[in-house]
From TrEMBL, chain A:
GO MF terms held by the record: cytochrome-c oxidase activity; heme binding; oxidoreductase activity
Family per similarity comment: Belongs to the heme-copper respiratory oxidase family.
Enzyme Commission number, as recorded: 1.9.3.1
Main location: membrane
Species this chain originates from: Anoxybacillus thermarum
Localization in the cell: Membrane
Name this polypeptide is given: Cytochrome c oxidase subunit 1
Domain Cytochrome oxidase subunit I profile: 1-549
UniProtKB/TrEMBL annotation, chain B:
Keywords: Membrane, Transmembrane, Transmembrane helix
Gene source species: Anoxybacillus thermarum
UniProt name for this protein: Cytochrome c oxidase subunit 2A
InterPro entries: Cyt_c_oxidase_su2a
Pfam annotation, one family: CoxIIa
Membrane-spanning parts: 24-45
Length: 549, 49
């Protein structure tokens, strides 16, 4: 085994578990909101007591898009660096707890203002929609807390490097560091708009806001955000799944290379979310779309690497024929099955992403429910199923328990339920979107417009799928509760894969942070400086705040 | 054909590349699927121009 300890230290385990509990509480509440949304959009159900659809939708987006993800990721990464680069020092762990509490308090403040109906601005909080200042202040605490945890991980990594001069760092630690660098660089954008624009404006210190600047800063953050969600799933695919199936990693260098490419190419691309926005010169949109398509490279590298891992393993077990290796995979093991299904869903998800990012095709799907269908494949299936698969060994490892056969079977069923629900819900969303159905709107026939009537069957299918998904949420919560509190005591492995013998040695250049962060910054400056100056110099009058709910 | 003697080349052992036919087929399929989806929506776009 590489330098790491076999088992995550109990004190580090507590820190990781604290994050994971919050993540799953967010899943429970956010899932309930999701259920209400699909029911409302079917046209057969109305929210009681005058609750606004947008209050529910904001709850759903914030809890699942922002809270579940960030907490699970940071918890998982603390466990991963502790496992592979050694037990955290007391100082690092202390700052990890500070980060955790800031994030948790921030979440509570934000959730409070959403639930009392003072912040129905959706998880993207676009100006000129204006929430109560408490909403933004809570989010600021979440981000600051995550930064502190990020720096705690950097410090741990630096200590390892110091103790092992000239050595390549453990893969999972390296990957966690890349992800936190990505997060740090991109969240500067959202911090800027929140601190310098939204908070002063919501407190009434300034009257008007530059909407385009604020949206641009948001999407400078928003696209890398999706890679911040995705990279931990890739950590599990690259560095853990091979061990679970009993095989080897195809290549350590390839994995590091793809992470570096994501770091470089996932930031200077936010304009692909603003393709229909006025005030940005099409030439700059074009440049950012080209950069967007560069992430096809590491994505296909990842696909190749996963197929290769599976095929090499299957062939080592005597598989023959073109696809005989598929039969050798451990289909009955939920730690493999859930992430594998997540990978399969990434194929249509990626295809949809290419459509979204192409300027002309974006006009077909922009702001339709197609987009919602897309990220319920990427985030709510690929990433989330991979996280569930991770939780099935991570939680018992950290709580000193073992997953029983019965729970494993339930987890397989959970994965199947999720897949069926998502096939219904997401396909319905994609097709309705192609027919023009808008996202982010409650049920309406728009004065019995023929076009709107076409959407209704899809909205019913969406409700059926969403209800099945909600059952999936109940199942995973049962499993997680069992693993955390009731499963039999015992030792569960934290699997970490080894590299195949034929693989090339990993060069140290991947840890030349000055180089990679330097390239990332240069690309960001190229992609954003001129259009950003333009937005400020040629700005229309700013906007007052609106509360439309 | 001459019988091949067991002459090991001076260059140590010959690295054996793993056979990855299934991987190749899979990524090709993936590529075609991506192109197919893109082209489908592109024609939808053209139809609606
Ligand atoms: C029971 C399971 C779920 C159901 C039924 C569901 C349903 C929905 C629906 C119907 C919408 C769009 C509503 C609209 O645009 O009017 C939506 C939006 C969204 N969902 Fe889900 N969802 C579920 C699970 C998840 C999960 C697990 C995640 C993420 C981990 C997630 C993340 C999001 C996000 C970020 C939005 C966007 C909110 C916005 O547009 O402001 N959902 N969901
Ligand atoms: Cu994006």
């Amino acid at each position: 085994m590489m330098n790491g300890t076999w088992k995550v230290d109990a004190r580090d385990g507590k820190l990781a578990m604290a994050h994971i509990y919050v993540a799953f509480v967010a899943l429970a509440l956010g899932g309930l909101a999701g259920l209400l949304q699909v029911l409302v959009r079917s046209g057969k159900f109305e929210l009681p007591a005058g609750i606004s659809y947008y209050t529910i939708l904001t709850t759903h987006g914030v809890l699942l898009g922002l809270v579940l993800t960030t907490f699970f990721i940071i918890g998982f990464q603390f466990a991963a660096v502790s496992r592979t680069a050694g037990t955290l020092s007391d100082r690092v762990r202390f700052w990890g707890w500070i980060g955790f509490w800031l994030m948790t308090i921030g979440t509570a403040i934000t959730a409070f203002y959403i639930l009392i109906g003072e912040a129905s601005v959706l998880y993207t909080f676009y100006a000129p929609l204006q929430a109560h200042a408490g909403f933004y202040i809570g989010l600021t605490l979440v981000v600051v807390g995550s930064w502190i945890s990020g720096f705690a991980m950097f410090a741990h990594y630096a200590k390892w490097k110091k103790a092992h001069p000239g050595q390549v760092s453990p893969l999972l630690t390296f990957m966690s560091v890349v992800n936190m660098v990505l997060w740090l660089v991109c969240s500067l954008g959202v911090a800027a708009t929140v601190l310098f624009q939204l908070i002063p404006w919501s407190l009434g210190y300034v009257d008007r806001i530059n909407v385009l600047v604020s949206r641009t800063l948001f999407w400078y953050f928003g696209h890398p955000l999706v890679y911040f969600w995705l990279l931990p799933a890739y950590m599990i695919w690259y560095a853990i799944i091979p061990k679970i199936i009993g095989g080897k990693m195809f290549s350590d260098s390839l994995a590091r290379m793809s992470f570096i490419l994501f770091l470089i190419f996932s930031i200077p691309v936010g304009f692909h979310h603003q393709l229909v926005e006025p005030g940005i010169d099409p030439a700059w949109k074009y440049l950012q779309v080209v950069l967007t398509f560069m992430v096809v490279i590491p994505s296909l590298m990842t696909a190749f690497s996963m197929f290769a891992t599976f095929e090499m393993y299957g062939r080592s077990k005597g598989a023959t024929g073109l696809f005989g290796w598929l039969r050798k995979l451990p289909w009955g093991d939920a730690r493999f099955f859930a992430p594998f299904i997540g990978m399969l869903f990434f194929i249509p998800a990626g295809a949809g992403g290419l459509v979204n990012a192409s300027h002309q095709l974006n006009q077909v799907v922009h702001n339709t429910i197609w987009v919602t269908g897309h990220f319920h494949l990427t985030l709510a299936t690929t990433v989330v199923l991979t996280f569930f698969g991770g939780a099935y060994w991570l939680i018992p490892h950290l709580t000193g328990r073992v997953m029983t056969k019965a729970m494993n079977r339930l987890a397989i069923i959970q994965t199947i339920v999720w897949s069926i629900g998502m096939i219904f819900m997401s396909s319905a969303m994609h097709f309705a979107g192609l027919l023009g159905a808008p996202r982010r709107s409650a049920f309406s026939t728009y004065g019995d417009a023929p076009q709107a009537l076409e959407w209704i069957p899809y909205q019913i299918a969406q409700a059926v799928g969403g209800t099945i998904l909600f059952i999936g949420i109940i199942l995973v919560l049962i499993i997680v509760t069992n693993l955390a509190f009731f499963a039999p005591k015992g030792e569960t492995e934290f699997p970490v894969a080894e590299v195949a013998e034929q693989a090339e040695r990993t060069p140290l250049v991947f840890e030349n942070w000055k180089l990679w962060i330097g390239i990332a910054v240069v690309l960001i400056l190229i992609a954003y400086t001129v259009p950003f100056i333009d937005m400020i110099q040629n700005a229309p009058p700013g906007s007052k705040g609106f509360k439309l709910w | 054909m001459k019988t091949q003697l067991n002459t090991s080349t001076p260059k140590a052992k010959v690295e054996k590349e793993p056979a990855l036919k299934g991987t190749l087929a899979s990524v090709l399929f993936l590529g075609f699927f991506l192109i197919f989806t893109w082209v489908s929506v592109y024609f939808l776009f053209l139809n609606r121009l």
